[in-house]
Amino acid sequence: MLTTARRHELALLAAGQPWLPALLVAGRLARPIRKVPTLGWFVADPAVARQIYNDHAHFSIVSEGAAGHWWAQVIGDWVEDLFEGQGHTELRTKVRDLFAAKHTDDLVARVIGPALKQISADLAAGGTVDIAERARVLVGRSVSDLVGMEPADIRALFAEGEGGRVAAEGNGVDETMSDDDEPFRILFDHVEELVNLGIGTMASTTLDPVALERARTLAAKLSAAVPAAYERADGNTTLGRCRELGLDVQHAAGLAILMAVAGTDTLASAMTRMIALLHDSGEQHALLAAPDRLPDAVRETLRVTSPAYLVGRSVTADVEIAGRQLRAGEHVKILTWSINNAVGDFKIHRDYVPETRQLWFGGGRHLCLGAQLVHSELGSLLEALTAAGRPFEIVERRYRRKVFIPTYETLRIRLA
Ligand code: HEM
Q: How far is the CA of 337 from the centre of ligand 1 (A)?
């Protein structure tokens, strides 16, 4: 029988894209690897997934069927080197320390610490907080800072008051949020619209002309403030490091967009779903009784939600995997959500699972660069929520509809 937590998670996935829960649940049957006509190979086994992530001689992230191919059409072919060539190794080496715990903990405390304190205070005062609305702003603020954009840059970017999706629909707005947050809400909507253009790429990552034009317009808008920020960005930001590395401003702008896309929807999705899962599973009571399990609650959130539910690769040379013959030109889809959820339901007392490790962050040389930032942010949000030592209740929830990365539109909570 479906638990309440599972029922909400599946409904949330369906609101994003109606066929998603069926694909991800049935995806387990593909274990270890199974071919689906017109779509390619589906992988539902953690060891096979890791084998593919680590095999750069036969699998690529930049050929048709993988994310790099999509981006090359939007930003330019040069991103191929950034994804897979010497440029990829150099850049990862150059920015590594910016993504380490020392830096991300400091970033979280400095950039979103005040907003998190406000959440604790609002809840303690008996208020209702829309976690979905707050999450959209929190991730906008943190990713902007990581890139090297100041709040003034984001305000200038959206100065003409382009209403984002939430503002336009006039719903879900948390009345206790400040006007300063508005540019970050709009930033989120722009990034999400760009990400949503990825809907429909299951069979092919080649963009149709209308989608391509819109993607380029959004990308240009998002990177408009980069030149000014690039000139003055401090060495402790991604743009600053790009400048030191000699990456020109156009390439740095492309990287800023990639970073914004990688670290916005996924993290906001994990934030909101973490809070819903803790509530729906009743595990918030276990957490209040054992606060030292907070890092486990974060890890379990990432396992069960797996916001990057499917990761694509293309086969560049014939290869045998788990007894199957994969041919050059075929596509591979690693079913991250299916693999991670085969372990079981959300339990904060579940220890680290060596088999899945942290497959929700991918694997091999493309392992998520933002992993530590994600842990820092989710951990801090959970600390803010549990600060009062009392359980919370959900007073209203709505799933966000027609989105590539499923998430909550509204998740209003208050202390019980
Ligand atoms: C819960 C939130 C997140 C999840 C589930 C997630 C998941 C992933 C996954 C699965 C990949 C590998 C994609 C592939 O191999 O094709 C990836 C790559 C990446 N992620 Fe994340 N991510 C999250 C948040 C972030 C954040 C906050 C940032 C930083 C701003 C970030 C930056 C990146 C970058 C730069 C890459 C590319 C790394 C490379 O190619 O070397 N991610 N992420």
A: 15
